[in-house]
Amino acid sequence: MQRVAIYSPSTSSGVIRTHLATHMLLYIENIIEYKWPILYKPLQTVVDSGWSLQELLRKLQQDPTCNVTVLGPHPNAGVALAGVRLMTSDNGLPNFSPEEMNHQIVKFIVADDQVSSCLLSARYY
After folding, report:
1. Which of 4, 27, 31, 57 could link 36 by a cystine bridge, Cβ 3.0 to 4.6 Å?
2. Is residue 49 part of a domain?
């Protein structure tokens, strides 16, 4: 019988996290398939900088020597608002999920300044 280790957000062993980096391809595949939260901070940083998990997966499949800790921001990161994640599918549209829909609505409101124009309306004074 194979022994299975249980990892949680509080798992903080540097050795375990370093070892996880050697299995990044498998880790990303499982995050996508099982909708796991990203608990490996270097991977979360890369995703926050604009890389989608699917793009990272393709990059790691094409170049097994690639390391997510040295990728830097996505080449198109300047296209989005600062601090906004880009979650896109192969056709360039955002992947659909209730969370992503919420994210896109908030992004639109912030970018289009809808809230302040509504609050400045005369009927609110």
Report:
1. 31
2. yes
Distances (CA, A) of 30 to 77, 102, 107, 108: 25, 24, 28, 31
Number of domains in the chain: 2
For 76-108, how does the pLDDT look when each residue is reduced to its tens digit (9 = 90+)?
Answer: 765 544 445 545 555 566 777 888 888 888 777
Domain residue limits at 122: 94-125
Distance of CA 53 to the CA centre of its chain: 7
3-state DSSP percent of the chain in helix, strand and coil, to 5: 55, 0, 45
Same domain, 15 and 38: yes
Residues 41 and 3 in one domain: yes
SS3 118: helix
pLDDT digits (tens, 9 = 90+) for 34-78: 988 988 888 988 988 888 999 999 998 998 788 888 887 777 765
